[in-house]
Hints:
Blueprint: H1 3-18, H2 24-27, E1 28-34, H3 49-62, E2 63-76, E3 79-90, E4 94-97, E5 103-107, E6 113-125, E7 128-136, H4 138-144, H5 152-169
Parallel strand pairs: 1-7
Antiparallel strand pairs: 2-3, 3-6, 4-5, 6-7
Pfam families: SnoaL
InterPro entries: Cyclase_SnoaL-like (IPR009959), NTF2-like_dom_sf (IPR032710)
Protein name: Putative SnoaL-like polyketide cyclase
Amino acid sequence: MSTIDAETCIRSMTIMGSGDLDELSRVVHPRATNREAKDEPPACRGQGPAAFVATAHWLRSAFADLTFDVHDAVTDGDLTVVHCTMSGRQVGPFVAYDERGAVAQAFPATGRRFAITQTHWFRMKDGQVVEHWANRDDMGLARQLGWVPPSPAFLLRMARATRQARRAAA
């Protein structure tokens, strides 16, 4: 196991949560790709640190106190896997995007806290993250934040938040 690769991957996650985004260029390769960006804003779908910074801004616009509590990290060759719990509090709308980059849905802020398990996969090159993908407990997130089962009032708030997000994106 390469301790340096595992530390680099964990550092990238810490930076995403902390907001010290200038440091991402030290740990993210110029040609890095986030395979999870398909549901994120168009700015997140590029390559390199700028796309990862866009993902961090997107997450932090919806979630305050974002932290990743690492349980395990394993490296084999150029691949590092990190099992963690992501936690925070929803303070802004969480906006999901479709494959064309248009707003698909927006989940209005609930102010609730959450903690969900995730597994992040990182491919490394030259000591930097060059590829990322993840398995997340999205249903657990939705339940903890009160998105499901939706109440009639929440559905109305969701429709309003989606309209506002679409206007802002236009």
